[in-house]
């Protein structure tokens, strides 16, 4: 078996495997690379020593059986016998479901999560979006402090378990998307600097030195990240990747890393003969991110749209702190703008940032499915002091309204696990750092952050306490309870309507029509022949639909069809979906 590693500044590199040591040779064809052949099989443990230093895991390790600091293990990808024939499932028309493996079930493994995939198929979603799976210290965590970006966290089940999960999802008709982190690696277990210039002090990020995308040596670093992305899509038959915080990717080169990555993914899709896509998390509100390369864009296929979330959250809750301030001044107006223009901040002043922010999106050119819409995500729940979901503070009727706007709106909808039955469990920030100093620093930092917002220290959950993770696990007995079952049925009905009514999948953002009343707290959405009326006020509201002949498709509370003048009476904290009769 061929072993190789990039170590451009090394004088010597040795391969250590199962008690044997052998020197690697410089590769005459590739500067900075060291190679050598050695006997190995699936599961063989090995590592590299640079200039007689400690034996470290392979930067391209496919498996870390003993965690980020242990030896790597050989993975022969071809050993797995795939069961499902899979032609792929594209992003247009999708409904995504964000899932954290460690809390989706109490078991916290890929295999236990796979046992619950039937629930998602019955719900009607099309793709599961897995939160990061790369190895990180300890057993439980969110996954954004991972290292070894080619490997699967061993406590989740390792690479074989991910293949079993994907296989089962594909058998049920579900695509699988993986959240990957290219903008930083975790503070513990990151051994890349020992091998080469994977990071640079030219730029700084919230996590320290930036990943080296434009300094000397960056060609190989970019190839490292692109190769990792392609390996997930190819070796594990994934359908797409979610790219974490792409605004933190510091790159001054003429060919941006994201354009290089999107080109490589599109080429792989052509080679494999099935659709593949990239979804960015971005704070930039820059349409160039999701514009085609032919039009001068970076060629990513979609991005999360936090503006829709913030406007919807402010409208539902009345919260006005932090970044919600910009949306809370006139929340229905903000929500209407995002539903018709994509971005709220499109060159407008942001009080949170103290400057103008964003750029207008060309509604005639950018299809609406390139923006993901959601009322809740891991970030927007877990980064609250107590990890409280909307269900902790809103009535069932308001939750139903949030679902209606998300699932009948113009964007590609995404749900956060448990949302579909108004889960009563929180989703809190939890870690399992094995370094006591780091664990204490995270604990104190978390408490200090929320103390500035008036939270008492004892009210902020300890991330290192196992009970914090345990509280965050979904309670699978809830969907059988009356209120939760009703909400689950509502989500199923809305997803089914989106699938059966082409107007609800129309990607033309310019065709969306909105009417709203800020004072009366109602909003009406028109998408072709479909109307959605949402009343967030306490009392019944008369909403003018301009539609006298209509058929009710779904209603949270019973309603009559509009009167002869097209006026629809909607109960307080309720919503209805209608179509022209």
From TrEMBL:
Stretch list, region Disordered: 44-70
Top-level EC class: hydrolase
Pathway: Glycan biosynthesis; trehalose biosynthesis
Keywords assigned: Carbohydrate metabolism, Cytoplasm, Glycosidase, Hydrolase
Gene3D superfamilies on file: E-set domains of sugar-utilizing enzymes, Glycosidases, Immunoglobulins
Keyword ATP-binding attached: no
Residues flagged as site, Transition state stabilizer: 379
SUPFAM superfamilies: (Trans)glycosidases, E set domains
Protein name in the entry: Malto-oligosyltrehalose trehalohydrolase
Species of provenance: Streptomyces fagopyri
């Amino acid at each position: 078996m061929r072993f190789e590693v990039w170590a451009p500044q090394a004088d010597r590199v040795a391969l250590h495997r199962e008690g044997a040591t052998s020197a690697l040779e410089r590769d005459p064809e590739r500067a900075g690379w060291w190679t050598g052949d050695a006997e190995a099989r699936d599961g063989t443990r090995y590592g590299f020593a640079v200039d007689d230093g400690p034996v470290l895991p392979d930067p391209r390790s496919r498996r870390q059986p003993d965690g980020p600091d242990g030896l790597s293990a050989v993975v022969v990808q071809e050993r797995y016998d795939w069961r499902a024939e899979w032609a792929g499932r594209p992003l247009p028309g999708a409904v995504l479901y964000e899932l954290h493996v460690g809390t989706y079930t109490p078991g916290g493994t890929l295999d236990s999560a796979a046992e619950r995939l039937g629930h998602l198929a019955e719900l009607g979603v099309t793709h599961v979006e897995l939160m990061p799976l790369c190895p990180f210290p300890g057993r439980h965590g969110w996954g954004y402090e991972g290292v070894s970006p080619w490997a699967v966290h061993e406590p989740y089940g390792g690479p074989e378990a991910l293949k079993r999960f994907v296989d089962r999802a594909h058998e049920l008709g579900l695509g699988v998307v993986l959240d990957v982190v290219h903008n930083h690696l975790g503070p513990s277990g990151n051994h890349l600097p020992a091998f080469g210039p994977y990071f640079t002090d030219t730029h700084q990020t919230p996590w320290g030195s930036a990943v080296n995308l434009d300094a000397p040596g960056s060609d190989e670093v970019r190839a490292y990240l692109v190769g990792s992305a392609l390996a997930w899509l190819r070796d594990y038959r994934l359908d797409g990747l979610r790219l974490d915080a792409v605004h933190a990717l510091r790159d001054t080169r003429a060919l941006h890393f994201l354009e290089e990555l999107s080109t490589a993914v599109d080429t792989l899709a052509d080679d494999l003969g099935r659709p593949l896509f990239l979804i960015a998390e971005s704070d930039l509100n820059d349409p160039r991110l999701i514009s085609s390369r032919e039009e001068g864009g970076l060629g990513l296929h979609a991005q999360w749209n936090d503006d829709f979330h913030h406007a919807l959250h402010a409208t539902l809750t009345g919260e006005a702190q932090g970044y919600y301030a910009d949306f809370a001044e006139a929340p229905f107006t903000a929500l209407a703008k995002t539903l018709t223009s994509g971005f709220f901040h499109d060159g407008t002043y942001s009080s949170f940032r103290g400057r103008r922010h964003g750029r207008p999106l060309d509604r005639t050119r950018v299809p609406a499915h390139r923006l993901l819409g959601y009322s809740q995500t891991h970030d927007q729940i877990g980064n609250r002091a107590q990890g409280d979901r909307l269900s902790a503070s809103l009535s069932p009727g308001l939750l139903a309204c949030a679902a209606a706007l998300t699932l009948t709106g113009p964007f590609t909808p995404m749900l956060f696990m448990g949302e579909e039955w108004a889960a009563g469990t929180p989703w809190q920030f939890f870690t399992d750092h094995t370094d006591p100093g780091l664990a204490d620093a995270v604990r104190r930092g978390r408490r200090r952050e929320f103390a500035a917002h008036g939270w008492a220290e004892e009210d902020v959950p300890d991330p290192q306490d196992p009970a914090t993770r345990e509280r965050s696990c979904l309670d699978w007995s809830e969907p059988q309870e009356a209120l939760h079952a009703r909400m689950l049925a509502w989500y199923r009905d809305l997803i089914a309507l989106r699938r059966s009514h082409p107007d609800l999948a129309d990607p033309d953002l310019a065709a969306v029509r909105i009417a709203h009343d800020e004072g009366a707290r109602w909003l009406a959405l028109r998408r072709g022949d479909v109307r959605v009326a949402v009343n967030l006020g306490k009392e019944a509201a008369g909403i003018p639909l301009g539609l006298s002949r209509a058929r009710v498709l779904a209603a949270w509370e019973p309603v009559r069809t509009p009167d002869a003048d097209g006026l629809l009476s909607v109960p307080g904290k309720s919503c209805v979906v209608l179509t022209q009769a």
